[in-house]
Amino acid sequence: MNCGAKHFECERTGRDANLFSQCCEKGKIRLPEYRESPLITALLNGEHRFSVNYKKQIRCYNSALAMISTGLKCDEQGSAGPYYIRIHGMVYHQIGSLIPENGVNPSYAQIYIYDTNEGAALRMGDARNRECEPELMLELSEHIKDINPYAGSFKAVYMAVQAEPDRNLRMFIFEDRSSDRRRYTLPSTTDVAAIFESSNGEPPVGDRHVIVQPFGSTTRVIPMQSSNIDPLGYVLLFPYGDPGWCVDMQQSNPRTRTQTKITQNKYAAYRLSVRREDDFHRSEKLFLQWVVDMYVRIETERLNYIRYHQNELRRDLYLNLFDYVQQGAERDVEMGRMVVLPSTFIGSPRNMNERYQDAMCIVREYGKPDLFVTFTCNPKWKEITEEIGEGEHSYFRPDIVSRVFHGKLQAMKEDIVKKQNIRKCCCLDLYNRVPKARVVTCTHAYFFEGR
After folding, report:
1. Looking at the predicted structure, is the pLDDT value of residue 331 above 50?
2. Is the dihedral of CA 272, 278, 284, 289 positive or negative?
């Protein structure tokens, strides 16, 4: 093991018993150790008098303390059956002006320019937080303001704008915290943000940096490649403001010269790997929200890559598509830009058609299947119950459930195909009810007996 992550024996890669790749890519990925807050740890451990309310309303507390807004359409279910979060469409992270307009209630980062008591009262005044405890909201507000560098930065920028109202000042949140701070000469420059003066309001450098306007009613969409989304949007998961993934994140021990950066998928795999029972994995509903949000970000990046690399996909060679565009041009119909979603994208129409053609080919070769097997997950499996914490529900730990299910699915395939424990098998066709990027807990299989 290179990073100290815990693994099941079936996840071993290669002949070395201590070599695993899904956590840190065999030592190529090294991220800073996750830092825990004493107050949040006590709330999750049940050592605080408001621990029950905190766990139940953790998403409300996080939304109240967040410095950016998250725009999404989601379904939340927990009254009957396992708790789940389902997101529809895109997820947008936005940040507004630093100073609220007259007659508008302050929200998100705007609340951090007020003192702690007034800020907690403003958060409790929101109808969405009516089931939160006022005392706990005040305690969390004080705690975040003391340890989070972003909270102090918003207050410092507000004081600078008030002191020099005639200057066109903007707040600039760093994308790379290791960059040279000497270009920002104002004394209010902090470890995570700085003030700059610009005639057109544009950032000094870069296109992924977060710019906060002092006044105005418009909001800015934060790019999904920004490392500031996690510390600004998930304050209770990253209370110390530790940065998240960015496109410039480098591997610590790259094996090749071409692949030296850490992808968003590999970053998420590293964070989801269990090294110890930390507050990140035990945050239940908020942990689920982060997992779903991260999945949407990864899927969006994949779609953007396909959109802007159509020439490499050789889209003009797809059957019927080019003819359809040509016919539309002849009829003077505005067709728009042609974007092809290839069969390599799981869940796309071409991918489903390819799977159908493969299944029909197997039937032509081996005849009709002899058995139709449904393999489902049991949350009471010993491997799951032993790895989750005491009193923790399995539906709050999709990282553990999916790994155990995948391991047992591979064991079933080995029993059928290699060991031939059921019958002599000549072919086994497996498919999942959902794309494998999601948490798969049910798989169907067609069993073809040897003839």
Report:
1. yes
2. negative
Q: What are the residues whose beta carbons fall under 8 Å from the beta carbon of 208, sequence distance 6 or more?
A: 175, 223, 225, 226, 246, 247
Strand, helix or coil at 234?
coil
Q: How confident is the model at residue 138 (pLDDT cuts 50, 70, 90)?
A: very high
The reply to whether 142 and 1 lie within a common domain is no
Q: Structural domain of residue 16, as residue ranges? A: 1-30
Q: What does the buried/exposed string (b/e) look like for 279-310 if buried means 16 or more CB atoms within 10 Å of the residue's CB?
A: bbbbbbbbbbbbbbbbbbbbbebbeeebeeee
**206 and 90 co-located in one domain:** yes
Domain shared by 288 and 161, yes or no: yes
Task: Report which listed range, 106-115, 154-163, 336-345, 436-445, is most confident.
Answer: 106-115
* pLDDT at residue 161 tops 50: yes
Rounded distance, CA 11 to CA 400, Å?
A: 12
Which of 155 and 286 is assigned the larger pLDDT?
Answer: 286
For residue 55, give every residue at least 6 positions away whose Cβ sits within 8 Å of its Cβ, in sequence order, or none: 43, 44, 284, 285
- 3-class state of residue 415 by DSSP: helix
Residue at a domain's end among 303, 330, 349: 303
Q: How far apart are CA 151 and CA 120, in angstroms?
A: 14
| Domain co-membership, 279 together with 367 | no
136 with 106, same domain: the answer is: yes
**Does position 327 have pLDDT exceeding 70, yes or no?**
no
What total number of domains does the chain contain?
Answer: 4
C-alpha–C-alpha distance, residues 95 and 87, integer Å:
21
Q: Which of 66, 46, 50, 58 is nearest to 135 (CA)?
A: 50
For the chain, give the mean pLDDT: 79
Nearest-angstrom CA–CA distance, 233 and 212 = 15
CB-based contact 104:216 (threshold 8 Å): no
- The answer to whether 422 and 416 are in contact (CB under 8 A) is yes
Which 8-state DSSP code applies to residue 251? P
Residues 6+ apart with CB under 8 A from 7: 1, 20, 22, 23
For residue 347, the model assigns a pLDDT of 81
Angle between helices 134-147 and 116-124 (to 10 degrees): 130
Residues 243 and 330 in one domain: no
Give the pLDDT confidence score for residue 73 in this predicted structure.
75
Quick one: 208 and 248 in the same domain? yes
Does one domain contain both 380 and 327? no
Among the three residues 254, 281, 303, which one is the final residue of a domain in this structure? 303
